[in-house]
Amino acid sequence: MTAAPRTRIKICGLTREADVDAAIEAGADAIGFVLYAKSPRAVTAERAAELASRLPPFITPVLLFVNEDASKVIAALSRVKGAIAQFHGEETPEQCEQATGPGRFRYMRAARIPLGAAGAGFDLVKYASDYSHAQAILLDAHVEGYGGGGKAFDWSLLPPAVDAHLVLSGGLTPANVSDGIRILRTRCKTLSVDVSSGVEIDGPGNKGLKDAGKIRQFVAAVRAADASFSS
């Protein structure tokens, strides 16, 4: 019997200490903080640093930026020990490099995949090549705004082989994450998953407020999917 692969888990859009603690307790590998003022889940760099100070060793803080000035990105990353950047706007490869040092900080680059059949037209292989210095390519649905829309693109339309570490995002929930892992596991170097709205408290006014029970359910679903790959 071979060991089951381990899917890394990021819980994104956290704004409260209790939610950070719940994600840690559930077994998350990374915690995401949104540094984009127009997002309902936005926090300041100072607040992100406060929340990230609760993280134990080996859990990575991730700071999400959208078309931010390089100097502000570097300042925020310098404030949060061990943080990596997630670029979710229109940043070019050159801008990503400039905003991370270059080489001083690691970063992920979001790819916004069109919904429906149009997703087949997105050239993920070329995108991954263009952003080859990124630690990973994060896959999200292309919806109005930037991230956290709760929409899933058609995972089956992605290429059969992508030479990159991928992070599946966009519309993930405890109910569907296992399907995403099953479809994409063998199509990339490694697969991670990223959830935000799928583990939030129900209700239109609760963006950024996580449900500890849903976080536990999400992590359990990922681990069950991993176990199904052992043989």
Low-pLDDT segments, ≥5 res: none
Number of distinct beta strands: 8
Helical residue percent band: 25-40%
Main sheet: strand order: 1-2-3-4-5-6-7-8
Structural class: alpha/beta
CATH class: Alpha Beta
Distance between the termini: 5 Å
Tally the structural domains. 1
Protein name: N-(5'-phosphoribosyl)anthranilate isomerase
Organism: Variovorax beijingensis
Domain N-(5'phosphoribosyl) anthranilate isomerase (PRAI): 9-220
Family: Belongs to the TrpF family.
Question: Would you kindly provide a written description of the structure presented here, covering whatever features stand out?
Answer:
This protein has 231 residues and is of the alpha/beta class. The chain has a single domain, classed as TIM Barrel (Alpha-Beta Barrel). The chain has seven helices and eight strands; from the N terminus they run E-H-E-H-E-H-E-H-E-H-E-E-H-E-H. An eight-stranded parallel beta barrel has the order 1-2-3-4-5-6-7-8, surrounded by four helices. Strand 5, helix 5 and strand 6 form a beta-alpha-beta unit. The model has no long low-confidence stretch (mean pLDDT 94).
Outline of this structure?
GO terms for molecular function: phosphoribosylanthranilate isomerase activity. The protein is built from seven helices and eight strands, in the order βαβαβαβαβαββαβα.
Distinctive features:
N-(5'-phosphoribosyl)anthranilate isomerase, 7 helices, TIM Barrel, alpha/beta
